[in-house]
Design goal:
Length: about 210
Amino acid sequence: MRKTPDKSRTALAVGLALVVVTLGVFSQVRTFDFIIYDDPTYVIANEQVKAGLTAKGVAWAFTTSRASNWHPLSWLSLMLDCSVFGPDPHRLHLTNLLLHTANSVLLLTVLVKMTRALWRSAFGAALLRKDKTDQAIVHFEKALQLDPCDVITHLDLGAAFAKQGKQQQAIEHFTQALRIDPCCTDAFNLREQLLRQRQPDPNSMSPKGNN
């Protein structure tokens, strides 16, 4: 009867360790400034975001396709940051760090519940957060051996392979996730994105003139 409390305490300890690792690796971002990559699109040159959380901004967040994406929660999060802190890069990065840390714990929780493999799930989550994709793949593959029908692990493996540029392996895992759960929109969208990337550019296929 004591095994369940012990396992719960172990899972809690692992979760806390994952928090410490994530904060330790990424805490330096709180001192970083904006960069000229996507920060102008998302914050620096985005008047809707810099205006903070307003009724007009909320409506914009749910209807815009800016940055070629539809992700209203990202816009709302940035707007809330600007309402509280202003467009301060250090505090916006701090919010990202806290969300990143929470997401690490959430990933661990989902993996443990789906695979029933606490340590493999913990290692996989931690390694992905540290960009050690090769090692993360090993642990996720072992988790799949325990439960080959685990949709979440197939998604994680597909994402890891895609990160390595191994599109075929990624597509295979997204496809397998769809076989298990045909309603899995994440697997469908990720697979379609990779399939589109593999299609040749029509402009590069135009015939060359004879010399």
